[in-house]
């Protein structure tokens, strides 16, 4: 049965103020059923307070073949990391 | 049933009926684990089962206290025979196919919704607290079972035919849901339980709405020959209990 159902990606917000994070996927006949399946599969141990689902087919992904062109150029540009500042002692988190 | 049953005893029996319906239905749903038509539904049915067994534990522990004979939740679940079980006859009916399980679930979910809503206002504060907790779970159960009832009823010709057949087969057990006996009447008079005849009307209205959405026909009402909540059961309960109780019966007092 589940082979006939489209795949949905599941995103869970673990608590208020945090972002939704991708946790996995479920098969479901439609979006409301996908929410129920996500609830039943991924929130059994109080993992979340909000669920998003999106059809996997609707996600546009980068092509692994193009990884070099997309991501290699950033590799030798360490100056883009904000690690060259002296951080005052009083600042605990940055 | 002894007509002169004392109020205290009636109270314990009333709670035991609620407990046994939850326990027996939870055990039935547990039979689906590893066998549901999709992994996600397997998890969903297991979750319903665990909710119901959780409700049964709270209710059984309370029923044992009301009884006052030192029986705890385990003694009541594992060491009673079928005639001492007070669950609704509907709850013990076999799973059948997935649609059959859904029809049984939807019927009991919608019944529990009415009962727990009524009990949340009970003068018995402990029972009211258990009902308030169970009500949240039951709202989800009902959302799940109603959703599937509509999908299957308003689905393919085959799914509609099968789910209508299950409805026709299980409907005869629904007369018991809201038929009050002496215990029910005594509990509602004491403000402990809601009055069943009032709930019956609301249940019937909601049921008709769901059946219309699912394009299913409501079967005709039938006479009331089922007495699960008085300990008179169909042949299926004994088999269910033999599995539920196997370990404690074979190794009395076993713990882990």
Question: What percent strand of chain A?
Answer: 15-25%
The helicity of chain A comes to 10-25%
Q: Given the C-alpha coordinates, what overall shape of chain B results?
A: globular
> Which class best fits the helix and strand makeup of chain A?
alpha+beta
- Name the chain pair whose interface involves the most residues: A-B, 15 and 12 residues
Low-confidence stretches of chain B: none
CATH topology value of chain B: Ferritin
Using the 3D structure, state the CATH architecture of the domain at 2-61 in chain A.
Roll
**CATH top-level class of chain B:** Mainly Alpha
Mean pLDDT of chain A: 91
Could you characterize what this model shows?
- The complex is a heterodimer of chains A (94) and B (256).
- Chain A is an alpha+beta fold and 94 residues long.
- Chain A has a domain at 2-61: Ubiquitin-like (UB roll) (Roll).
- Helix content of chain A is 18%, strand content 22%.
- Chain A is built from 2 helices and 3 strands.
- In chain A, strands 2-1-3 form a 3-stranded antiparallel sheet.
- In chain A, a hairpin with a 6-residue loop joins β1 (7-13) and β2 (20-27).
- Chain A is flat and about 55 Å long.
- The model of chain A has no long low-confidence stretch (mean pLDDT 91).
- Chain B is mainly alpha-helical and 256 residues long.
- The model of chain B has no long low-confidence stretch (mean pLDDT 95).
- Chain B has one domain: Up-down Bundle (Ferritin), CATH 1.20.1260.10.
- Chain B is globular, with a radius of gyration of 18 Å.
- Chain B has helices at 7-30, 39-67, 73-78, 98-119, 125-153, 157-170, 182-189, 196-213, 236-244, 246-250.
- The chains are: A alpha+beta (94), B mainly alpha (256).
- Chains A and B meet through α1 of A and α2 and α5 of B.
């Amino acid at each position: 049965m589940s082979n006939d159902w489209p795949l949905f990606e599941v995103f869970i917000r673990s608590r208020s103020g945090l972002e939704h994070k991708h946790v996995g996927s479920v098969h479901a006949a439609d979006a409301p059923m996908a929410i129920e399946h996500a609830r039943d599969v991924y929130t059994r141990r109080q993992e979340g307070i909000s669920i998003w689902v999106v059809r996997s087919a609707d996600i546009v992904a980068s092509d692994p073949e193009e990884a070099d062109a997309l991501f290699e150029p950033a590799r030798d540009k360490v100056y883009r990391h904000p690690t060259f500042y002296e951080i005052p002692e009083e600042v605990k988190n940055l | 049933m002894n007509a002169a049953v004392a109020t205290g005893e009636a109270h314990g029996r009333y709670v035991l009926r609620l407990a046994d319906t939850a326990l027996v239905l939870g055990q039935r749903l547990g039979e689906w684990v590893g066998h549901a038509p999709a992994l996600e539904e397997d998890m969903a049915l297991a979750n319903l089962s665990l909710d119901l067994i959780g409700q049964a534990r709270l209710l059984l522990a309370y029923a044992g206290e009301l009884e006052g004979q030192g029986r705890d939740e385990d003694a009541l679940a594992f060491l009673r025979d079928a005639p001492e079980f007070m669950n609704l006859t509907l709850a013990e009916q076999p799973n059948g196919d997935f649609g059959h399980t859904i029809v049984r679930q939807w019927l009991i979910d919608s019944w529990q919704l009415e009962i727990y809503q009524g009990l949340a206002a009970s003068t018995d504060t402990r029972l009211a607290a258990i009902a308030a907790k169970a009500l949240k779970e039951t709202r989800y159960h009902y959302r799940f079972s109603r959703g599937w009832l509509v999908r299957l009823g308003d689905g393919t010709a085959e799914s509609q035919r099968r789910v209508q057949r299950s409805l026709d087969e299980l409907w005869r057990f629904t007369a018991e849901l809201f038929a009050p006996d002496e215990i029910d009447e005594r509990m509602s008079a004491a403000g402990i339980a809601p009055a069943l005849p009032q709930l019956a009307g609301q249940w019937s209205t909601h049921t008709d709405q769901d059946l219309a959405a699912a394009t299913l026909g409501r079967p005709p009402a039938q006479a009331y020959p089922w007495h699960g909540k008085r300990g008179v059961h169909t042949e299926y309960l004994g088999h269910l209990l033999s599995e539920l109780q196997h370990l404690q019966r074979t190794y009395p007092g076993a713990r882990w």
